[in-house]
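The following block was generated as part of the benchmark described in Methods. Ligand: iron/sulfur cluster.
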Amino acid sequence: MVFIFTALYPEAKPLIKMFGLKKRADMTRFQQFVPEEYLKLMAGADGEDSGDSKGRRIRPEMVLTITGVGPINASAAVSSVLTEYDAGSADQLLSLGTAAMLHKHDGKELFLLNKLLDQNSDRCFYPDMLVETAIPEASVVTGSQVLTERAVMFLDMAAGDYELYDMEAAAVYQAAAFYVGPHQQSFLRVVTDSGISEDVSDVKILAAHVTDSVERNVEQILDYVEKLREISAKEEERMDILGVPEKKAVEKVIRDAHFSKVMQDQFTQYVKYGSLSGISWMAEVERLYEEGVLPTVDKRNGKKVLDVIRNIISE
Amino acid sequence: MLSGTSFLNKPFSHIYVEEKVLADRDYREKADEIMKHFPKAEIIKIDHYKDVFNRHKQNYVKQHESQALILAVKQGNLVYPGAEVCQNMGHKHFYYTSCMMNCLFDCEYCYLKGMYPSGNMVIFLNLQDIFKEVETLLSEHPVYLCVSYDTDLLAIETLTGYVSEWIDFAASHPGLTIEVRTKAGNIDFERLPADRSGRTIFAFTLSPDYVVEHFEHRTGSLGGRIESIKRALDSGFTVRMCFDPMIYCPDWKTEYGKMMDRITSEIPMDRVNDVSVGSFRLSEEYLKSMRRNMPDSAVVQYPYQNDHGVYHYSDKLTEEMENWMVGRLREFVPEDRIFRWEEQDR
Ligand code: SF4
């Protein structure tokens, strides 16, 4: 699953359109957008959490959340959404937003962040840079105030090593770090300004400008999201060693062999190894059923079943 | 076990450099030497290597696929007394040192995957400080030092030149014997200084083709490692062969048998200094973390037996594998030069 967070709707608008996402009407605190099929599925489940064929809770492939501006809003939203969907080791998070340019950067507009400085705590955070992309990289200072052009000039001197200024990145990282690792977090920023000039008052014009900036770079952003989707799907696959028939067989044997908890764990470990090594333990289990060894009458006979399986997979 | 995702960054596409490295002329020079091998790498300045290496919830496996490089200066203790789960090969003053953390090679069963929080590689640039600490120890007693510990130094010798520096250092310090352990194939010994002292031991870990192909990713093939041994002998280095860890695989006797036939027919065994034998073992803590991160690795998911916090093959299988290997070796190597990892060391 891919989690996308943006501060403002204008930043999210092009992505919502491209991915055909729909708003979750039941979410009132933070606006959330998910694939339409997910909404249908949830409606079909009659409001109750439905599970997939493996008994897991169904989650959308992607959820885009509008957090609101600033570090507090960003961390509250990230924390809430990652808790809600029970973020795990196969998930990927993308924080997409806008930033002010502190230093000139060859006219480039879109950046992948590799270093995030929290201006308040003076702590630095480093997301893993695993995805190969043509998007140039930059470092960012995350502060809690909208920067004026004058403030940018000051920061240019005070934080000379940093290229961008934003109001969410370091906060998103810190909140997300409670749920996911640095290899599961990416940060894309589109540069929209070099600090807001003090006379900007027309919010509509500002919003249109932000949407335009994101739209100009939408191809690269979509390409990046696709890669995150693939990583997430592959990781999901990698974590799931036993297929549905194997899992069913494991459950049945555990039930029929009167295994204790320790024996259950041993058996599961045996079959995991067996499956990974191409040893056909399922055939052996079938044989045990045919010969009447399974089901067993008690735990003592269950031990014999365990020994048979151990012998075929390891020695 | 590798994800096969094609769009992940290549190793060392990102290099993190400590500020103190950049601030010191000598460290900076060494760093520049290393970085010039990666002209397209993104260079990221950091305060301390632990800011990157010790982050929470890292995934060793994912990071290792796109391994980043961290250039740092090591502080605190630099040389350590040998750990109990390692063979000391009969040496009383057995030490090890890590001028790097993590490895370019990618053995699925490698304990580093359970020991370190990160799969990224750290190279410490203050080798001279390690030399000083070794000199202090040498003023008290002779020292046997494993220098390729927690890494495979030879795998990145072209980057660091550290093995060369260690060979020279050992040659000029009579009480010092060093061991360089490796799984590298086709090593170019011409590029290393000649060993004038005989106190540099190259220890080659040897595994059957099946094990190399399935579990020892990016390492030298068996043929390549045999070639390395022949070259090491020709260059006058002391050679140790390590059949440790022996890894169980279906039909292990045939696989190890084929390997032994090949080794004993290609290598003049009488010129090999000694051999070590041991089957795979690993601390409970490391294996647990590896099982979490590598659900798809057969060697990690093998149902080992747990004895007092150390996972190993069943006693029966351990005996069978190790006895078999020792039996084969006895045909070529005198008994007193076969070191077997003993139960009491556990
Ligand atoms: S060569 Fe040694 S240090 Fe490197 S991955 Fe393999 S076991 Fe680990």
